[in-house]
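Response to reviewer comment R2.3. The reviewers asked that we include at least one raw input/output pair. We reproduce the pair for Pyrroline-5-carboxylate reductase here without editing.
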Amino acid sequence: MSKLTIIGSGNIGFSLAKGLVKSNIYQAGDIVLTRRTLASLEEEAKQGFGVSANNAEAIQGAEIIVLAVLPQQIKKVMEEIAPVVQRDQIIVSVASGVSCQDVKEVLGQDKTVVRVMPNTAIAIGQSMTCIATDNADAEVVKKVEKLFEAVGSVVVINEDLMTSATALCACGIAFFLRAIRAASQGGVEIGFHAHDALKMAIQTAKGAADLLLQTHSHPESEIDKVTSPKGCTIAGLNEMEHNGLSSAFIKGIKLSAKKAGGLYNE
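Raw output as returned:
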């Protein structure tokens, strides 16, 4: 059994499927994608993927079943597949705020469940994906890691940190995007055309991130390199801090984490 079924082939599900094919981990024909209607899977079918509107049928013969649906929808989907899920199938849940135990309560306590939290940069193979489990074997976790390494970076964490990971990595995309947007608006105010200001802000943010990724240095040591005594950088930084930049960021992440924990039960 080396078939993979992805239930709920929206942005994340389809991006994962494309990444796996691009990395030669799977052939398109070995992946089955499901949605509520087959009409919305036309593009996927053209690319050679198996497609289905019947979740219970789609998981038959699959080694790994990825539940890539919203936390509000996952219970209904699990109830559909519960009668046919086999004990040796690996269940991968991408729904935020849904624990391994929540999944087992519907699919059965003898099932193997791994929780995964990617972010929307999965669309370009740059996801920061966090993986956790309650008691799946290390070998199973390695298999799931390999899947998501095809679409970005992976960190394996304790399950009790998964809602925190949602806030920092999944919601975090929006926080960094808003910071880039704010930088571009500042650029317009100091004289640049909007399109130039945005391009400059984006590349500067990308450069900052790559600098840390490639040199493995700490943000503060890189900040020290740009802040000269009585200089313009430290003046700008301190003004931002006086207005609560770091504090606002931290508070936002904390509130997102609190909210992420309650999605399944709402």
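The CA atoms of residues 85 and 91 lie 9 Å apart. Residues 172-260 form a domain with the ProC C-terminal domain-like fold fold (CATH 1.10.3730.10). Further pairs are available on request from the corresponding author.
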